[in-house]
Each structure stands twice: as structure tokens, then as C-alpha cells.
Amino acid sequence: MRRISSFFMNMKLRSKFLLSFTAIIFVTVLMISVVNYVVSIGAIKRNSGEFSEYLIGQIGINLEKRTKDIEEIAFQQFRSSSLSERLSQTDTSEETIYFRNKYINDFMSELMFTKEDFLAVMIIDVNEKPYLVQRQTFHQYDQELLQRLDIDAVQQKRGKPVWFQGEHGTVFMVRAMFDIPTAKYVGMIAIGLDSSYISSIITNVNQLMDGDILILNENNELFVPDLKHSGVAHFFLDNKLYLANESKNSLAYNGSQYISTVVSTLYDKWKIVQIIDVKQLTRDTDSIKYWTISTILVSLLIAFLMAVFISKNITENIRLLLQSMTSFSLDFNHHVIVPKSRDEVGLLAAKFNSMADKINDLFNSVYREKLLKQKAEYRTLQFEYKALQAQMNPHFLYNTLESVYSMAKIKGEEEIGEMIYLLGKLLRESIGKKGDVLTLQEEISFIQSYLSIHKMIYGDKIEVVYRLDDELMDCRVPKFILQPLVENAVIHGIEAKPGKGVIHIICRAEEEDLIIEVADNGIGMDEEMVERLLNPERYGTIIDSNKHTNVGIISVHKRAKILYGDKYGLSIQSKSGEGTTVQIRLPILDGGHSRD
């Protein structure tokens, strides 16, 4: 590790820039791409699971409705008929038996043709004698039903329907019948249906999402098994994984991962299960992977070319300066450097040109004079270098703030980025503007940026209202004449006030004078405090509990009086608990001359 560090430290500056830019961009692009890929895969799995749960929930609703329709048809037909009385007859005469059997057959025939999906209708009386009507006579539905039917278990259900699967593409619904007035058991009714009546629900859903769909009845028996199921479905049933507490579970089968979703209907009458292969869910993510890799490679190529260009541009002046210094150190023969740019290094090269020229002039003088001049030149160079450093520091700070602002925008931190942008703008305006006066428009712009930062800090606690006369915006005012007043309104007025604070900034003309007001609805102050602010020579400087002095307001008051006379300066109106209005009076100056 030390050897690698030493190797990097000894590299040329251009190679360091190139390697650094490439590494930073590579890490950034790689992290963003990997995170996006992982998040995309997770979102696909999560959304697919939720969609699967919704689909089988709809299957459960449709299944509940379809089976409920059959149950209601049978019950309503029984309730509206005299079947209960016929089944309860004890007369054994031939005539009674004939009419009894005829009524039962007519009832079954009428029920048979109420729905085209009915294949057979069977009634079993209290003596367990079966009566059957069926559409296809070559099917022995009665034998199939009686082999699977547990009469005692159905009777104990007290009229609750029992559903189970037949062997020849049929499903059966069986329910016990009780006489309504006496609640006496009179027999049971069974209806055989074509299994497509149920399986068509699943067929429609399979067109939306691949996977196995299983329907289990209340005894956890497979319902409609004529659907084709994969090995993982049989594995799921054999291991009774449908009994798990969670509705969504993961399972492994033959080296593949699956997601199972189980939804139960009301009273656990049905369980609907969907088993989906994770590979099927993520089969379309290969394109994401390829696009991610392609994006990384293209980004690296572009970044490398940009890094080559930028590093060469940055180091070109340094290379020229190094060559000139090497030549000068050998024979004191200076070749003038022509900087490729006017950045800090270019300025340094220009200073070196100047220094080298002066050194060459010194060699034509007496050694002592030359030595003294060299020392003086060295001191001058030091002073110029420090001045250059002082010039570089603001630029460095601007560039740093702009870099932080760009990083905040990239990371989605809009509020932080805006605050950094405003701070950089304030710093540029405060340091960049030369001279002691500027236009009122520039001063208001500075205050707007300053208050924007405070509004971001305090949120909705601060509201600013501007009432400005556009004709006065070109008036010349002392630099930073408003900032101390606004800062005092925020810190001493609104910050300590509960609730929302409002600052009014107003400018208007009054005869030949410019009136600027900064008003707030803060905590205010008493008359003694106002007197102390306007007459510090009598009372001394005020320091409040938050360690914020009022030197700024005092300075504004004194500057106005010194610059323009005793007529001008501050006036303060304030009342404790209601707010403060600070008014500054200045002459109207336009381009350095007062308005006529």
C-alpha cells in the first residue's frame, strides 16, 4: 500500500489529474448504476408480488361468487317448492310413492335446466335412497358421487355446502336439507357441474401472469386438478406449505427460487395459491443489466477523454513554467513564457516573466547593488505572491461552493443546493463589488438573496413583503446600508417571536429625500432601548442575551450622518410585543448627483 501511495505521489501532475478524474467518475457511475439496478429488481419483485396477491384475490372473489350462485339456486329452488313435504311423507302406498318419486324427478329436472353448466342433480332422502337426473346417461355420476360422499359429515354441516372434485371433469356441491318450519333433516341435494365453470376463472388470470394457480377447498383438498401443474406445485402441496402463517413466502425447488402467495376467502372456505418463478419475474431485467454495463463503459470512455482534455489544459501552463524555470536555473537565460490561459497558474507565469526580467537587469549592476536589488525583488515577490494568494482564495471559495451546489443537485438535495447557491451569490456580491456606493437595485438584490437564505432556514416562519418604487431603483446608496437593519429585524424581532413573522421593506420619495423602511411584527422594544440605539455615545453599545451586538445599526446611523449631514440617518418606532419600524433617510442621488 505504501509503494502504491509513493508511486501516486511521484506521478506527474497531469497523470494525477487524469487518474483522479477517471477514478471519481468510475466510482460515481458504478455506484449509481448498481444501486439503480438493485432497486429496479427489488421494485419488480415487490410489485409483481402485490399484483399476484391482487389477481388471486380477484380469483377468490369470482370463485366465491360463482359457488355462491350455485348454492343460492339450489336453496331457493328447495325453499320455493314442496320438496321438504314430499321427502317427509311416511305413507308407503304405491300411489303415494309414485307421486313422490314423480315430484322429486320433476324438481331435479327443473333444477337441472336452470343452468347449462349442470351435468347432474341428485337427491338423497333420509333413508339414503338416491334420485338422479343427468344430461349424459353414459356417465355414472351417482356411483362417483356416492363413493366420495360422507353423508354423516355433510349432515353435520347443518346446511353448509360442501364442495369437492369429481373424476370426470366434474365438481360437486352437496348440502343437507332441513324442513324450514320444523328444522328437521329431510335429505340432501347434490349438483354436479362441469369443472370448466371453475377453471375458466384461472384460465383468464394465467393470461396475465405465468405461474401455477391452485384452488383448495376448506379441507385443503386440491380443487379442479385437471389444470396442468408443474413439479413445484406438487412439492408445495406435498409439504403442506399452504399452512404457513405468512401470505407471501419464498421457497426453493430444484435450484430455483419461487414466490408463493396464499389468499383465503371468507371463513376459509377457499384457499387460492399462486406460485411464480423468480426468474420469470426478472426475465426482462437482462436488458437493464446490459444497458447499465453499456452506460458505464460509454460514460467511462467519455469521462476519460474529458479528463485527458481537462488535465492537459490545467497543466499546460505549469509545464511551460517548469521548462522556463529549469532553463533559467541553468544559465540565467530566460525565455519569455506565453501563458495558455489567464487562470491562477497563468498569472503566476506572468509574474515569473516579470521576476526573471528584473533578475536579468540586476546582473548588469554592481554585485552589491544586485544583491540588494535581489533582496528587494524577493520581498516584492513575496508580497505579490501573498496578494495573488489573497486573490485566489475568493475564487477557490466560489468554485468550492459551486461544486458543492452541483453535488447537492445531483443527489436530489434541492433545498441544500439552493442555499449553497444563494450563499455563493451573497459572497460574490459582498466581495466582488468595489467602491463604497452602489444602486438601490443592487442593494435590494443583495437583501433578497440574504432573506432567501433566512427563509430556507426558518421556513414559513418568515414572510417578506416588498413595496418598492421602480423610479428610485437607480439611486445611489452606501454599500450594505440595509443588511444590518434586516438582520436586526430577523434576529432581534422575529426569531424570538412565536408564530409567523412578517418583514416589510418599503422605499419611497419624500420631497428630495429617499426614505427606506424595514418594518417587522416581532417582539419590539421599549422607548429606553430605542434611545440607547440612537445615542450610543451616551449609553454605550448594547449587547443582548444572544450575544448579538447592535453595532450594525449604530454604524448605519453614523455613516448616514457623516456622509450626508445631521438631517439624515435613522429613526426608530417600536412598541413591545407589536413590532419595530426602522426608517433611514438619505438624499436622492442619481449617478452621483442629487435629483433636481
UniProtKB/TrEMBL annotation:
Annotated localization: Cell membrane
Keyword field contains Cell membrane: yes
Documented EC number(s): 2.7.13.3
Parts of the chain that traverse the membrane: 290-310
Taxon lineage: Bacteria, Bacillati, Bacillota, Bacilli, Bacillales
Protein's membrane topology: Multi-pass membrane protein
Name of protein: histidine kinase
Keywords: ATP-binding, Cell membrane, Kinase, Membrane, Nucleotide-binding, Phosphoprotein, Transferase, Transmembrane, Transmembrane helix, Two-component regulatory system
Start and end residues of each HAMP domain: 312-364
Histidine kinase domain location: 481-590
Entry-linked InterPro entries: Bact_2-comp_sensor_kinase, HAMP_dom, HATPase_C_sf, HATPase_dom, His_kinase_dom, Sig_transdc_His_kin-like_C, Sig_transdc_His_kin_internal
One GO MF term attached to the UniProt entry: kinase activity
